[in-house]
Design goal:
Layout lengths: L4 H30 L1 E9 L4 E2 L4 E6 L8 E4 L5 E7 L2 E8 L1 H6 L4 E7 L5 E3 L2 E3 L2 H9 L7 E9 L9 E13 L2 E13 L4 E7 L6 E6 L5 E8 L1
Parallel strand pairs: 1-8, 1-9
Antiparallel strand pairs: 1-2, 1-5, 3-4, 3-6, 6-7, 10-13, 10-15, 11-12, 11-14
């Protein structure tokens, strides 16, 4: 059967309209197929435990000021960010534990490629020796560090800096026999209350005391690392 001319022209117009739609759908599908999943675990290497509730951010390296993508680690420290286009990204996390340790957000750079559907990228607070070296520099012995933060004993009271004294007992061997000598190191802190005391032996009890520069009462928290 031969179609009338008007019917054939209408059919041709439908084909011309349908082809661009099919092309756009195919392009959208290819772009979605090229997107990847970035996932991994966040760990506290100092405590040897997962870091629960960490805020993970994934930001394009070309636009570090942009909001990027954000998610949170679950009960086992796992996180996942879906639908990530290929490119270079800054991956980092924030957590109250970092503030306790006096650390800024920990970041790393990753490269997302279309050929890898699921990319594994773990994050962690550095382990003991790595952390001590970053704070105190290389050490030839097994000395660790004590880090912490000093707060005003009265809420709302300002601390204009001060000092923290860390004391410990050290075994002494001499002509008189075996004895103990009290050793100490002093660390300064500023208005933010953070301090780092290097050269403190690991595995030994220490006594930590603090005093504000104005003589105000203080309280604090500390962690031994080594």
């Amino acid at each position: 059967m031969i179609r009338p001319a008007e019917e054939m022209m209408g059919f041709a117009r439908s084909v011309r309209v349908a082809l661009p739609v099919v092309a756009l759908l195919a392009l959208a599908h290819s772009r979605l197929a090229a997107q990847s999943i970035v996932s991994g675990f966040v760990r506290d290497s100092l405590a040897g435990t997962p870091l629960v509730g960490a805020i993970i951010q994934l930001i394009p390296s070309a636009t570090p000021w942009a909001a990027g993508r954000t998610t949170k680690s679950d009960a086992i420290g796992r996180y996942r960010v879906d639908s990530i286009p290929p490119g270079q990204y800054i991956l980092g996390f924030e957590h109250p534990r970092l503030d306790t340790l006096g650390l800024d957000a920990i970041t790393r750079t990753i490269e997302v490629v279309s050929s890898v559907r699921v990319m594994r990228a773990d994050l962690a607070i550095p382990g003991g020796r790595t952390f001590v070296t970053s704070l105190c520099g290389p050490s030839v012995d097994s000395a660790g560090a004590v880090i912490g933060r000093v707060f005003a004993a009265t809420e709302g009271e300002l601390i204009a800096g001060g000092s923290v004294v860390i004391r410990w007992a050290q075994m002494r061997f001499d002509a008189g026999g075996v004895g103990r000598t009290m050793m100490q190191t002093v660390a300064k802190f500023g208005e933010d209350g953070r301090y780092v005391a290097c050269g403190v032996p690991t595995g030994a009890p220490v006594l930590v005391s603090a005093r504000g520069g104005t003589g105000a009462g203080v309280r604090g928290s500390s962690s031994g690392i080594g």
